[in-house]
Design goal:
Helix content: 40-55%
Largest sheet: 5 strands, parallel
Order of helices and strands: EHEHEHEHEHEEEEHEHHEE
Number of strands: 12
Structural class: alpha/beta
Radius of gyration: 19 Å
Strand order of the largest sheet: 2-1-3-4-5
Shape: elongated
Number of helices: 8
């Protein structure tokens, strides 16, 4: 079973340990970070399914992180945790990209219910035929929903998987330069990012394997050719 990945940002060690262990006991995979400065790098590399952010953090506060996370991934659920109880703080949380806001102290059961509610809303978002869908053979790609659908089965995509498939969708039956992909999605073409790209190509090939008319062909020394018969 694939575990839901929770990025949990909390600088109180005792509380953090309790919440992390409680979530893990309920089959969540938890990556806990104590310093706001380290969050975005982990967010980009680990690609969580949901973020739980304390507001008061060293170096970068939770509201600032929420805005940055939301700019990178428009649909990921974000829950803010805070000891503040002013209405202005609540409004600031929602302005910063939050989907929910929990005041400390809180019960673990309340946190679990709120996490599950947000994940259920994301999973049950209605599929509509609109200008934001792309037909790819027997699949339908919904970039804004981060979904790839075949025969009513939904494959949820990460932000980078979505960005990569958007590039291929826009260049059907065309060669795409590997360096251009790296610069577009990762911002540079370092060796580390290049190896990451290999992993994402493999993932997309696996997602699209049910349609034999779709191929992602490697062009050695150039890049890729997204073939759609």
């Amino acid at each position: 079973m694939v575990k839901t990945k929770v990025l949990y940002v909390e600088d109180e060690p005792f509380l953090g340990k309790i919440v992390k262990e409680s979530l893990e006991s309920r089959s969540f995979s938890v990556n806990m970070v104590a310093d706001g400065l380290a969050v975005m790098e982990i967010f980009k590399s680990w690609e969580p399914d949901i973020c739980i952010l304390d507001v008061m953090l060293p170096n970068i506060d939770g509201f600032t992180l929420g805005k940055e996370i939301r700019s990178k991934n428009p649909t990921i659920p974000i829950i803010f945790l805070t000891a503040k109880n002013q209405t202005a703080d609540l409004l600031e949380g929602f302005k910063s990209g939050g989907n929910d806001y929990i005041k400390k102290p809180f019960s673990m059961e309340e946190l679990i219910v709120r996490i599950q509610n947000l994940l259920n809303l994301l999973d049950q978002a209605p599929i509509k035929k609109d200008a934001d869908q792309v037909a790819l053979g027997t699949y339908t790609f919904y970039p804004k929903k981060y979904q790839l659908i075949k025969d009513q089965e939904i494959q949820k995509l990460s932000h980078r998987e979505t960005e990569l498939l958007k590039i291929f969708s826009a260049h059907q039956n065309q060669a795409v330069n590997r360096k251009d992909i790296l610069l577009k999605i990762w911002g540079d073409d370092s060796y580390f990012n290049s190896r990451n790209l290999d992993v994402y190509i493999k993932k997309l090939r696996n997602y699209l394997k049910e349609d034999n008319n779709i191929k992602i062909v490697t062009l050695k020394g150039i890049g890729y050719h997204f073939t759609l018969a």
